[in-house]
């Protein structure tokens, strides 16, 4: 099987059609004909040996393979556009691209985004979210915000913002809420616990911090990403575990409760900036994030 990349025009046509969910709209955006986009997509499918779209009514629908390629190609073209824009406009006029996990973006960052834009308008922030493994060294990213453990790599400037504290949370809608919310932490050892594959160490770390036997934990429904895990907990499906920062708004609103509190882990929420790209905006963002985490 060939390991060469497909033609750029074919990828560009596919990315536009996948993003817009329409071959016709992709053709209009790219200023080509409908047939030209269709031919490029067919050529791409032949190159890869898989179907990327299937017909659905009068339109088209992405296959599983098409969805995977859409996610990667959309991110890649977004990075290209960002870097090209930076090269054309100069760093002082380019947006500051911040990468962070989608769960952190949705549950903590977006509710504060308007305030950030008002208080740091010169930042011109552009967000790049991912639920996969983040790479703080990737091209087109100025900084990465995530939970991580030291030691820190020598080629990164790492601004430590707040210690990570994790704890179990559940909704008053949960069927066993009345039995559990006033019970000791040990009561969770017999409970089918909601968990996520992205943080397999979370429950064992919490158990260790509460002097409980991690081997006695009983895991129930699993979720691929933390965001889905917490939505399941809020819907009353069970007891989940999460960093305190990501459930602070839900706790304040009464959507979730944390009867057993939170324990500190070796990790912290930190802003990672490649040393070679460090500029004053990174320092400004770090200071704003630190204030936001400590004051609100």
From TrEMBL:
Pfam families: HTH_1, LysR_substrate. Residues 6-63 form the HTH lysR-type domain. GO terms for molecular function: DNA-binding transcription factor activity; sequence-specific DNA binding. GO terms for biological process: DNA-templated transcription; L-tryptophan biosynthetic process; positive regulation of biosynthetic process. Keywords: Activator, Amino-acid biosynthesis, Aromatic amino acid biosynthesis, DNA-binding, Repressor, Transcription, Transcription regulation, Tryptophan biosynthesis. The keyword Signal does not apply. Gene3D superfamilies: Periplasmic binding protein-like II, Winged helix-like DNA-binding domain superfamily/Winged helix DNA-binding domain. InterPro entries: LysR-type_TF_proteobact-type (IPR058163), LysR_HTH_N (IPR000847), LysR_subst-bd (IPR005119), TrpI_PBP2 (IPR037418), WH-like_DNA-bd_sf (IPR036388), WH_DNA-bd_sf (IPR036390). CDD domains: PBP2_TrpI (cd08482). Belongs to the LysR transcriptional regulatory family. This is HTH-type transcriptional regulator TrpI.
